[in-house]
Amino acid sequence: MDGMAAQEAGGASSLLLGEELAETLARGGAGLRLDLQPICAASNLLIVGYEALLRWDHPERGPIGAAEVLAAAAAAGREVALEAWVLVSAFRLRAGWRPGAPYLAVNVSAPGILAGHAAPMIRAALETTGIDPRALSIELPEVALIQDIGAARDLAAALRGCGIAVALDDFGGALGPARVLRDIPFSTVKLDRQLTGAVDPPGPGTDRARAAVGAVVEMVHALGATAVAEAVETAEQLRILRESGCDALQGWLLGRPGQGPM
């Protein structure tokens, strides 16, 4: 299959999946679920938070990950409906946890930020679920900030006004400028796997990769934010990232997505 044919086939597949997703959302999201991946304090590896990760248990294809679900939603023009489902479901889930439970981090999509949908949907989800906003962290993807830093700044300000912590997700993955950190006072910055994954194993460039992580963490701390390393998968990565000063760690070494606390 040539490149054009493959692209057309992929588009048709996303459109078909999108039609099924639209029906799923019309039925209240049956089959959609949120897996929770723990975020652990670097100092003692105790769980301080969870990140909600979207999954779709398709009746024929089995589990489908977030990227493919989002592509299907875009193909069907159902991005807003899907994001609303995620926000309400995540907030309701966290509202049911015991007092003092870890915070819950929820991602918002780049289209939602750029189109201005995110802020009103988050406010509506807060009203619907009655959750304490201090139990939440909303993660903004770096790629959206690079496309329109003004829209991201406005959303971050609105979230802080509601009492919600704001995190920058995947920092370093899109080679974003330091202006992102300068202009928006994030409470948390999550280091992308392209930064954290390069610190291990030892080899050419590893020393520079470790120095780069240390420099980023130092900058994050200087701006008053906490640094969370994503995609921690080996004991050596854990050791290096701890030594680099990361405040918290997230990855398969520490816990795969699951149900979280009850």
From TrEMBL:
SMART domains: EAL (SM00052)
Pfam families: EAL
Residue intervals of the EAL domain: 14-262
Protein name as annotated: EAL domain-containing protein
Taxonomic source organism: Neoroseomonas terrae
Species classification: Bacteria, Pseudomonadati, Pseudomonadota, Alphaproteobacteria, Acetobacterales
